[in-house]
Amino acid sequence: MTLELGWEEWVSLPKLGLPAMKAKVDTGARSSSLHAFTVEPFGPPSKLKVRFGVHPIPERPDIEVYCSADVLDRRDVTSSNGETEKRWTIETDIEINGERWPIILTLTDREGMNFHMLLGRQALEAYPGEAPRVSPTKSYVQPVLGYDAYDKMLAKTPQKRALRVAILTKEPKIYSSRRLIEAGEARGHVVETINTSRCYMLINAEKPEVHYDGRALPSYDAVIPRIGASITAYGTAVVRQFETTGAFCVNRSEAISASRDKLYAHQILARDGIGMPTTAFASSPQDNEALIKLIGQPPIILKLLESTQGKGVVLAETKKAAESVISAFRNLNADFLVQEFVKEANGEDIRCLVVGNKVVAAMKRSAAPGEFRSNLHQGGSAVSVRITKQEREVALRAARALGLGFAGVDLLRSENGPKVLEVNSSPGLEGIEKSSKKDVADLVFQHIEKRAASTVKRRRKIVSAA
After folding, report:
1. Residues marked as binding for Mn(2+)?
2. 345-438: same fold as 164-257?
3. Where do the ATP-grasp domain residues begin and end (predicted)?
């Protein structure tokens, strides 16, 4: 049966995540075109892709859908007014009333036109079977779809597409960075590493930008922050700038800041009723003795607020030793916590790796002989471990309380149940992947795909001062 079309029809482009568009059917035009803005090529020349935004509703420029596709070529196209333009060309599927077939589309700016898609002769000829018959005096011969589909998209699993992803890191060659790059590329995405400290920012209301190495960075679908502790303040400012550009950040700036401030993190965990070792903090040297009394009899732990990988963490086995360490920290003008030593943990902790709303892997870390710190950077060892339901729930609650989508939650097994020792916003992958045999990097990208594939955005309105 021949497919009949009017001069205007509702169509969908399922591979691009566009469920409903009005298209002008024009047999006088050879090629088909789609309205696109912010068209950016990305990826290696051998597998070039293009990322672009679409306004599917001509009268609603505030609604934006972001798409990507493989590039066929870049060709010269002459419009009906005689102007020639070089356009990116892609292949995708069109669907009309359940009939689906591949067509070639050129990307161009059709802003201001009544139709943001033109269906030309070449696309009609590609229909499997007899070419559709077009009735130039009829409209919407095929079923009407409706733009309410874009409101429904917000609640649905997004259409998978190739993403442009940035990893913010000063160490692109370490295991964690390499694994994330490998996993992203294996799933068809383009992954780029950016040195966080080399970024600088243009801050304005109309078009916020992140610049790097003398140029404005392109739009990214997602950003994986791997911010070093030494540049937390500047690194979170860079992440915040990426957030303003509309990129999905696996860990948001405020969540990273909260996790890095150990005092604030413990206050958040305590507020949410999450178990942790008893912790005390004071500013005045006059309160040193009272601070130790709050924790109880030594041994006790003294921990710098900005410590990472077990550095700046001291075990004081006597009151005199604790006073000496506190005095040393005071002389350095360093802020620190005094914390209960959980003896029954026996130099072991549990690292739970949280991605999204799941604990995807866990390992038990054991301290080296003569050492109380179980961190792998301090010579500790790791083995896979089966965690309890309670430990799983505590790890998820801790990551959720701090707002982290990708976190390493360290637990101690105490007589009173699991206690959160620390929540890490840039967890390493080497130890957890090798001990658990889980492809954590791939799971990170699965999480990103659920949040940053075909997204529907409502553009911010800029309010000018009166």
Report:
1. 410, 422, 424
2. no
3. 266-449
Q: Please list, residue by residue across 412-450, b when 16 or more beta carbons sit within 10 angstroms of its beta carbon and e when fewer do.
A: bbbeeebbbbbbbbbbbbebbbebbebbbbbbbbebbbe
CATH topology of domain 278-341: Dna Ligase; domain 1 (3.30.1490)
Distances (CA, A) of 288 to 293, 302, 321: 9, 12, 12
Per-residue pLDDT band for 262 (boundaries 50, 70, 90) equals: confident
Cβ count near 344 (within 10 Å): 10
Give me the mean pLDDT over the 239-255 stretch.
Answer: 93
Annotated binding site for Mg(2+): 410, 422, 424
Q: Which residue has the higher pLDDT, 80 or 27?
A: 27
Q: Pick the closest to residue 174 from 16, 377, 452, 411 (CA basis).
A: 377
Count the residues in the chain.
466
Which is higher by pLDDT, 2 or 4? Answer: 4
At the fourth CATH level, the homologous superfamily of domain 4-153 is Acid Proteases (2.40.70.10)
The architecture in CATH of the region 164-257 reads: 3-Layer(aba) Sandwich (3.40)
Binding residues: 303, 340-341, 349, 373-375, 410, 422, 424
| Domain at 345-438, CATH homologous superfamily | ATP-grasp fold, B domain (3.30.470.20)
Return binding residues for ATP. 303, 340-341, 349, 373-375
pLDDT per position as a tens digit, 390-407: 999 999 999 999 999 999
| pTM for this prediction | 0.77
Domain ranges of the chain: 4-153, 164-257, 278-341, 345-438
Q: Is 4 helix (H, G, I), strand (E, B) or coil?
A: strand
CB 52 within 8 A of CB 68: yes
* Cα 73 from Cα 16, distance rounded (Å): 18
